[in-house]
């Protein structure tokens, strides 16, 4: 074999050329002459012992994998990173405080539990997480899912007790008992979520996130935003006073927060830190509420009691566990999906990698241990993560700084936020949902780019709105899996042709430069061949190539009958007729047909020979203009036993009508599958496989033009 690359030479604008001269290869030649497998001398027992053998390097690798902070903390550049991380942590805490209070309302628990959830899990994630930029804590969608379970397991109707101040049969609502029960539900659910995520991480189930495609996640979060809006209407419209109109008062907050958010987005490159609109609204509204005693004089719903200090750890009430298992799986998967999607975005931007399995472990530990301190399930927040990254955060030190600020509020100044109106928290939630509602812009984009992904987006949104977030998510995942099956059942198929003087082969219907070789069809399908699509592969092959073995067999049988009829005519007995005329004997040779008896011997012979020659010529014509079919397996990644049987059937059926079938560009792993499936036999050898389409084309041309080559071909 000779290979040569010709440079540009004196003409710098000329194209570089590649010339290769080598023999025509098939798989049999590659296996016997060119490629030799490496011998694996180790036994299974040796490999197993090596896998479980403990060495210092393996122990170090395990420690670094399970405790990712050990990879960056020992070499942490204090002078370069510390100031940026502190500023980022302070900025994130300013956003995390009001969001923690607000999202606790979505979880149907008192606001202080949002502060707990903004402290314990953040500390744990800083040591076990692999992302340096995500901000872990409360998140609207997860909080809403938890709140739905809490309200379902502890509905208001359970907590109406007979009134002690009335003689009639009236009842009053026990708010304290209701809140305590819902906290227990949220805590137990969080414990189960943590266990599921941790076990999934140990089992290396990080790949499950691939089934939550971006359109599915965006449609789901948009539907969740609708649920959040509906859940907050009672707080937005809940001010019971003529002087302070609920809708108008909250509109002022919403407008202010929206303007601040727009300014932060538009001038984020010029602002050293984002404008803390949320904390400004919280401080101002808390001061106004306290100064005017809105709760006492105008019955405005406020945050109320925020206990000072941390609560002692407590064991969750596991008797509530059985009814929450489906909900826990949904929360665990959605929480992980949101976390890993954000982590990958920041990792790609800043040039490091994240481990999906370790992220599952980190979230699992954060939720599991946090639940013993009355936290509810957490994940990464997009808005806070953007703040943490845009303000210069370099590592999870910024997350630790933010958690320290939250801790100071819990142990020292939490009581300050007791007069905070709940309408302000609802406004904070609503404004933070704007980014989710902007996802409706995906619809026209997906309409232009991918109809299947548009169906996933819309179906996920509708199902999640109508069925609820838990059942909507299950329906969306099922639909996503069905689209995978649909794609394999509807692959793109084409007939390839060669581009002259290139050795390249492209779709003849798509490119005018591509043209077919006479008598050769090159069939390409961009899918693997297995039980679900093997029949489709065979039918599409016949449709695209225009060569149907069954029809050709029928034509072959008709020709065979015609040949037998011709032979019968040739071998039919002749009679000699003698007539006597004027004492002379005249002999005539007559066929059995009486109609032919009227002609002369010479005329009859000429007519008979002409018909026989015509019939033989018709019989000798090929059944099809196509003498070879090449199956392009460039994109075939695997084949199963059903697919292998289908290919065998294709080769046999086409061989029966004198059409050879060969296979080109099959990768080594698929060939290994065929070996394991015992695909090859004496009549079906590796000679049918070629490393490139061009090798297969040259083989078919040579075999068709050379009778000896065709006779020696291994089929």
From TrEMBL:
Q: Which organism is it from?
A: Oryzias melastigma (Marine medaka)
A Pfam family of this chain: Sulfate_transp
Q: What are the boundaries of the region Disordered?
A: 552-573
Coiled coil feature spans: none
Q: Which domain of life is it from?
A: Eukaryota
Question: Which residues fall in a compositionally biased region of kind Basic residues?
Answer: 554-568
GO terms under cellular component: membrane
GO molecular function terms attached to this record? secondary active sulfate transmembrane transporter activity
Q: Where is the STAS domain?
A: 510-700
Q: Identify the InterPro entries for this entry.
A: S04_transporter_CS, SLC26A/SulP_dom, SLC26A/SulP_fam, STAS_dom, STAS_dom_sf
Please give the CDD domains that the UniProt record associates with this protein.
STAS_SulP_like_sulfate_transporter
What SUPFAM superfamilies does its record include? SpoIIaa-like
Q: Which UniProt keywords apply?
A: Membrane, Transmembrane, Transmembrane helix
Query: Which cellular compartments is it found in?
Result: Membrane
Transmembrane region(s): 102-127, 134-151, 185-212, 244-263, 275-292, 328-348, 360-377, 397-417, 424-440, 455-486
Q: What is its main location?
A: membrane
Entry-linked PANTHER family: SULFATE TRANSPORTER
Membrane topology qualifier: Multi-pass membrane protein
This chain's protein is named Prestin
């Amino acid at each position: 074999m000779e290979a040569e690359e010709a440079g540009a030479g004196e003409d710098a604008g000329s194209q570089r050329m590649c010339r290769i001269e080598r023999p025509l290869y098939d798989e049999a030649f590659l296996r016997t002459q060119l490629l030799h497998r490496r011998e694996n001398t180790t036994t299974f027992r040796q490999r197993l012992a090596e896998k479980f053998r403990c060495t210092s390097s393996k122990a170090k690798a395990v420690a670094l994998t399970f405790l990712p902070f050990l990879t960056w903390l020992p070499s942490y550049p204090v002078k370069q990173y510390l100031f940026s991380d502190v500023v980022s942590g302070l900025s994130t805490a300013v956003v995390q405080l009001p969001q923690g209070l607000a999202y606790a309302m979505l979880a149907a628990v008192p606001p202080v539990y949002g502060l707990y959830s903004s402290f314990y899990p953040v500390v744990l994630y800083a040591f076990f997480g692999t992302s340096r930029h995500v901000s872990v804590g409360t998140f609207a969608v997860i909080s809403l899912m938890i709140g739905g379970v809490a309200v379902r397991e502890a509905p208001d109707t359970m907590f109406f007790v007979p009134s002690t101040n009335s003689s009639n049969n009236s009842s009053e609502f026990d708010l304290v008992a209701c809140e305590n029960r819902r906290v227990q539900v949220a805590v137990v659910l969080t414990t189960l979520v943590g266990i599921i995520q941790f076990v999934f991480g140990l089992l290396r189930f990080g790949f499950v996130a691939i089934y939550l495609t971006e359109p599915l996640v965006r449609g789901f979060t948009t539907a969740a935003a609708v649920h959040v809006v509906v859940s907050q209407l009672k707080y937005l419209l809940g001010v019971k006073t003529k002087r302070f109109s609920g809708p108008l008062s909250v509109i002022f907050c919403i407008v202010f927060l929206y303007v601040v958010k727009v300014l932060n987005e538009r001038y984020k490159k010029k602002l050293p830190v984002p404008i803390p609109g949320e904390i400004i609204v919280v401080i101002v509204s808390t001061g106004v509420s306290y100064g005017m005693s809105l709760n006492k004089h105008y019955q405005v719903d406020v945050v109320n009691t925020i206990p000072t200090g941390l609560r002692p750890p407590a064991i969750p009430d596991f008797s509530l566990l059985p009814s929450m298992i489906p909900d826990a799986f949904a929360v665990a998967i959605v929480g992980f999906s949101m976390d890993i999607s954000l982590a990958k975005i920041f990792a790609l931007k800043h040039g490091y990698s994240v481990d999906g399995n370790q992220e599952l472990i980190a979230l699992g530990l954060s939720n599991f241990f946090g639940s013993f301190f009355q936290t509810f399930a957490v994940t990464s927040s997009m808005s806070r993560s953007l703040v943490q990254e845009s303000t210069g955060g370099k590592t999870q030190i910024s997350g630790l700084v933010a958690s320290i600020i939250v801790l100071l509020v819990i142990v020292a100044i939490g009581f300050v936020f007791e007069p905070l109106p709940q309408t302000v928290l609802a406004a904070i939630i609503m404004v933070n949902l704007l980014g989710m509602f902007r996802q409706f812009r995906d619809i026209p984009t997906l309409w232009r780019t991918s109809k299947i992904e548009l169906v996933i987006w819309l179906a996920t949104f509708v199902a999640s709105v109508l069925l609820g977030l838990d059942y909507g998510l299950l329906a969306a995942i099922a639909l996503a899996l069905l689209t995978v099956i649909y794609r394999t059942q509807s692959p793109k198929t084409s007939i390839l042709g060669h581009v002259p003087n290139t050795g390249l082969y492209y779709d003849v219907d798509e490119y005018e430069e591509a043209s077919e070789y006479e008598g050769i069809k090159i069939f390409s399908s961009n899918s693997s061949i297995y039980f679900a699509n093997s029949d489709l592969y065979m039918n599409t092959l016949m449709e695209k190539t225009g060569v149907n073995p069954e029809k050709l067999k029928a034509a072959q049988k008709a020709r065979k009958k015609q040949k037998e009829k011709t032979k019968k005519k040739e071998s039919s007995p002749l009679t000699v007729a003698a007539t006597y005329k004027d004492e002379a004997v005249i002999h005539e040779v007559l066929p059995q047909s009486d109609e032919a008896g009227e002609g002369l011997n010479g005329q009859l012979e000429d007519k008979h020979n002409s018909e026989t020659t015509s019939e033989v010529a018709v019989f000798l014509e090929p059944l099809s203009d196509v003498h070879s079919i090449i199956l392009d397996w460039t994109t075939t990644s695997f084949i199963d036993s059903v697919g292998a049987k289908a290919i065998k059937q294709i080769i046999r059926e086409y061989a029966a009508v004198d059409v050879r079938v060969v296979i080109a560009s099959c990768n080594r792993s698929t060939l290994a599958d065929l070996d394991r499936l015992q695909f090859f036999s004496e009549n079906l050898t590796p000679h049918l496989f070629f490393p490139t389409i061009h090798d297969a084309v040259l083989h078919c041309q040579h075999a068709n033009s050379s009778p000896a080559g065709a006779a020696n071909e291994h089929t």
